[in-house]
Amino acid sequence: MGLKQPIKKKKTLKYWVGRLHLWLGLISGIFVVFLGITGCILAFEREIEDATQTYRFTELQNKPLLPPTQLKAIADGALPNKHAHSVNYQPGRSAQVVYYHDAPAYYYIVFVNQYTGKVLKVKNMDEDFFRIVIMGHYYLWLPPAIGQPILTTATMLFVFLLLSGLILWWPKSKAARKQRFTVKLKSKWRRLNYDLHNVLGFYITIIALFIGLTGMIMGFQWFAKTVYWTSSGGKTMPMFEETYSNTTGKVKLSTNAAAADQLWAKFMNEDPNFKGSIDVHVPEDEKGAIEIAKNPNPGTYWKADYRYFDQHTLKEIEVKHMFGKFENASVADKIMRMNYDIHIGAIAGIPGKIIAFIASLIAASLPVTGVIIWIGRKKKSRR
């Protein structure tokens, strides 16, 4: 009698999910490690800056605040040949005059004492540590058209890896389920590594999914439009458009400078006990509108009120995009406004940032522990 041929096992769905999990993990792993580590660094950016940069603070004083155009003129003297983008006020903090431009490209912040006009710091943000990390986290220090698609694609693969990992992790029985929720710290290092990959990966799945999906919204326009369409019940996402003043009128009620100061004074007088931040965006030319951004919680961005005014008549200009009055924002608009705050965990304050930090750290470790598992299995199969 001849020898019986070995029976070939039928390849299950879990097998093919495992193969995809392996190869997509190997392809995207290095980027996931990079995004996780830089995400950890950026999680407490604001808190670290506040603790190490004293020029960010100016004590509250019983004195009148200098108006935005005066602060702008002072900052212009410290940073000539640049155009100021906005002037920021927040109680207990120094005023910030922001200079940002695409062509030629520059980004500066001038910190000024809002009571005396003393320049506290002229900061080139292109040389700032956190700014450099952000440019890596967003664009891999490449041109945005190249770097952003690479990192966002890696993020999309990571989202698939989280879901496929959950399928592979899912226990077949109650007995197996008990072993899947704990890391056996006293076991051998290979088993410990296996648990670190599977158990920790399971625990961060929900948080990491939110981080990954919000990253995809920032990186892929098609995905952002899909999320908006779904959350709005089938509406098209309105795109942001610049707001302009009417330059056809022959009569101008005021100059650009006086107009910005008048609007700022009006907002300040409406709520003198306001504890949030107010941004005054000064128009670059006679076509531009004046924007006033009033944020009740400077730790996040999504609740900010964005108001636009004709610089010649001071008449308010209504906008159709999502970055207008907060009270006019739909549910879909608010979801999109929340996106960045969810991504960094700020939506839940310090506890949210701690959770985002831990999730990013574990996410960075998963490709490493996964590769160790793969190498161990290859050696075992050879033996």
**SS summary, helix count:** 12
Average predicted confidence as pLDDT: 90
- Span of the ends, CA to CA: 30 Å
* CA-atom Rg in angstroms: 26 Å
SSE string, helices as H and strands as E: HHHEEEEHHHHHHHEEEEHH
Low-pLDDT runs: none
Strand content: 5-15%
Described by strand count, sense and barrel closure, the largest sheet is: 8 strands, antiparallel
Please list the strands of the largest sheet in the order they lie side by side.
4-3-2-1-5-6-7-8
Q: Which secondary-structure class do the elements indicate? A: alpha+beta
Which bin fits the share of residues in helices? 40-55%
Oligomer: single chain
Identify the overall geometry.
elongated
**What is the tally of beta strands?**
8
